[in-house]
Design goal:
Layout: H1 10-21, H2 27-36, H3 38-46, E1 58-67, E2 70-81, E3 84-93, E4 99-101, E5 106-108, H4 111-120, H5 123-133
Antiparallel strand pairs: 1-2, 2-3, 3-4, 3-5
Helix pairs in contact: 2-3
Length: about 140
């Protein structure tokens, strides 16, 4: 490791400088804020230059589901598609890690509306989507 004449590590100085430009909260605080204000984070995602795409969708919400004694996680995966947000549900069998997905079944005007629609489903609706995605 090369040290400059002031005796400091150049990477440490770079990190300290970057922190003055873009001060970020500690990770635990960010996670707590995400849990308390998910809509605000989705709105940030809405206007981001690197918003999720069809090839790289983002998980916008997750719910647990039990079916016939098996635990599943239903994840809303969404992406921006021109003037709309589209999405599908990816189901993961908790104990095995097996993934099954629906086709693209959502189309809303923004990511918050996509999340609200997903959260409005009753567990029986989620189970029906799971059955439709199983081989």
């Amino acid at each position: 490791m090369k040290v400059d004449s002031l005796g400091e590590d150049p990477m440490t100085r770079l990190v300290e400088f970057c922190e003055t430009l873009i001060p970020l909260p500690p990770f635990e605080i960010w996670v707590a804020d995400l849990r308390q204000n998910p809509e605000a984070h989705l709105l940030d995602l809405q206007d981001a230059a690197d918003a999720p795409t069809a090839l790289a969708p983002a998980t916008l919400e997750a719910r647990r589901l039990d079916r016939k004694g098996t635990s599943w996680v239903a994840r809303l995966r969404g992406f921006r598609d021109h003037d709309a947000w589209r999405g599908f549900i990816a189901f993961e069998e908790a104990s095995v890690g097996t993934l099954h997905s629906t086709a693209i079944i959502f189309r809303e005007h923004d990511a918050c509306a996509l999340r609200e629609r997903f959260l409005s489903f009753e567990s029986t609706t989620l189970e029906a989507f799971l059955r439709s995605s199983l081989p």
